[in-house]
Amino acid sequence: xxxxxxxxxxxxxxxxxxxxxxxxxxxxxxxxxxxxxxxxxxxxxxxxxxxxxxxxxxxxxxxxxxxxxxxxxxxxxxxxxxxxxxxxxxxxxxxxxxxxxxxxxxxxxxxxxxxxxxxxxxxxxxxxxxxxxxxxxxxxxxxxxxxxxxxxxxxxxxxxxxxxxxxxxxxxxxxxxxxxxxxxxxxxxxxx
Length: 192
Hints:
Largest sheet: 4 strands, mixed
Radius of gyration: 19 Å
Low-confidence stretches: 178-192
Helix content: 40-55%
Structural class: alpha/beta
Strand content: 15-25%
């Protein structure tokens, strides 16, 4: 099985951004509204494993994409505690729930212990690489607007940290860094 085929994946947030997420950037009132709406819309069913655990036992999980120095909000889904624990496997390890998360990762994906070790090593390598970089948090307003029909409202701390938190209207508005080659070529005239 390939990593892309896994039903339940591990999302290790780079160390520098452990405390940088949507919940920590928006007002508490707005986060509560987002979380409540995501859970209610899911009718108590986990997006990944499909178990009906009840609305109150679901967590609102943010999925991020890492690209060009940006940690970009991609979606927010309702997950059961077990699937959410796998998504944040590193935190589960810190809190003493690593074995439980690891077992659930194997079960939901229907993989062998050997495959699980292989994938966990891949995720760990990815985490190590990402943790060596600085990541700007990019919040996509349309994702929040689709859920609660209102724009993102940054809290005081996120406003003060405006160099590291950016709001864009849609995913297509995410700023991209030019590649080194295009920057390099752009500075010089090339004569053939």
